[in-house]
Structure formats: C-alpha cells, structure tokens
C-alpha cells in the first residue's frame, strides 16, 4: 500500500532532468508573486494564462519556498514563481482567521502581489476589505483588471478609474493592468510589469518546471473544482475536499499498461441540503463530478484511476479545529 513515485508514474529514471541552469543573463530577475482577489475574481484562470499551459505536477524536489508553488513563468529575462494564497476572506470563522494569518504571512514574503479586480463587477466591500489588508504591507501591489474581454471599452475605462480610486483611498497601486486570461490580451504586458518588480537574481527552478504542488493537493483541487462547477454561488465556501488514500492496485508481472490507482476522496459539506445539491437527483450530479474529476486526475498522475467519492456532512467543519487540520488548513 503505497503511492507510486513520480519516476514510476512517468517512467522517467532521471528525476532531476533539467537542472537549474548554471548560467543566466546579467540582468535576469527572479522572485515570487501571489494572486489575491475575492472569490471568482479570475485568479486561477489568470495563473494558468501566465504560466502558459495547464499547471503540471512534478515532485520529489526540495522546495525553494515554504509556500505551495502554483506555477512558474519562464522568460528569457526572468523567472516568476506564482505561489498560492488561500482566498482572502473576512474572518467570520476559525477557518477565516487561520487563512488570514497565512495570507498575511505569504503576502509579506513575496516580491509582488497581484490584486485581481474583475471588470465585469463593480468594486464592492469584499474588494475594499482586501485593499485595506494590502495597505498594511510593504510589498508592491499590481492591480489586474481581470476579465477585460467581458466589457466594452468605455466600461473598462470606468473600471480602471474606479480601481485607481480604490488604490488612492488605501495605498496607491504600483501599476494597473487590464488583462483577459481568456483571450490572452495583455497577459504578456502583465508578465513584463510583474518581472519589473522582481529583484535581480538567478533562475530558481529548471526550465520546463511548472509547479511542485504535491499530488494530493492537486487531486483534491480537481475534485473541488468539479464539485463546485455550476453551483459555485450556492456553496462557495461550504465545501472542502480531503483525499483519504491513493492506492496502487497490484499488477501482474509484464503488464505494460499504465498503473491503476484507487483514489478515495471525501467531499465535506456543512448541511444536508448542500449534500443534496452536490449529489443531485438520483446521484446524477455526483456521477458527472466523478467523471470530470477522474479525467483530470488521470491526466495529472499519468495513471488509470478508479475514483471513489463520498459526500459527508460535517456540521460546522469550518469551526472544527480537528477537521480543519485533516483538511490541510
Ligand atoms: N470572459 C472571461 N472569463 C474569465 C476570465 N478569467 C476568468 N474567467 C471566468 O471567471 C470564473 C472564475 O474564474 P477563476 O479563475 O476560477 O476565479 P478564482 O478567482 O480563481 O475563483 P476562486 O477559486 O473562487 O477564488 C470562471 O468561470 C472563469 O472561466 C477572463 O479573462 N475572461
């Protein structure tokens, strides 16, 4: 009963293929950035657009940072490492408080913060709360007017003015960049702006490296994404996912097919009504969730997967320190 190593999954023997380069241009810059913004602000989509491909996994390498790396942007003149921050929320629950401590710590340690403010929505109390928090930091903050493709130019201009005003009310933004992660418009500009905020230094990761997020976290996230699809508004923060076990099935000698993994996952919700939403009529929605998540997990792990999903009601899981610990908070 063990989780197969990366080597076994990819068939690669040289896990360190592509070492960190020993030579780099004199004016090379490298460092860390964090994307923040209220839920649905476009952080994940923008991360993928900046990295240029869907984040892939690699592991078994010491981390340069204590933080979870979401993606790495490689450019001839610099390297930008995007690290994860859990959502920045008003601390209403224990989860909120813990997240916020973690968020503050992370934000204080990166070189630049990207504050995502979607152009489709008016700036609201949630954004102001984050702006106030960011004003406490010394880290430069770049405001990204995300989802710029969704509004006409005049609305975008109004949004940019509102973003500028928000900065002036709290702490002026180092830059304001409209960007669309979907059309790719201005993604390069944003990358350039962010690189400009990094200190001079050597590349931190080998070229080709995209992220070193542990498999279990990535698997949990794929399930969470699938489970929230279409019901994000109803269950935004009431759903947590824990990967209980990933077990490789024994194989007959000489079997050339990819390994078969049993992946056991619990989805936690807070109320029976939420459980019903996740499961759907006669279990139809949960089956779809499973199919979607399984496809992603198979691509991620390079293995065939049997995905076993259980939806459990854990009343007030957000306030239960033991359960929070198990869920990785
Ligand atoms: N049209 C358009 N839609 C976008 C863009 N970026 C994100 N979206 C959509 O906006 C929704 C939310 O995007 P996410 O990237 O998941 O947002 P997030 O900030 O990571 O959300 P949380 O995980 O809830 O914090 C998704 O449906 C995306 O497809 C964009 O540039 N243009």
From TrEMBL:
Keyword ATP-binding recorded: no
Region (G2) location: 63-67
Instruction: For the region G5, give the residue spans.
Output: 179-181
Give me the gene this protein comes from: era
Domain named KH type-2 is located at 231-315
Which residues are recorded as binding GTP? 37-44, 84-88, 146-149
Q: What is this protein called?
A: GTPase Era
Alphabetized PROSITE patterns for the sequence: G_ERA, KH_TYPE_2
The lineage is: Bacteria, Bacillati, Actinomycetota, Actinomycetes, Micrococcales
Q: How does it sit in the membrane?
A: Peripheral membrane protein
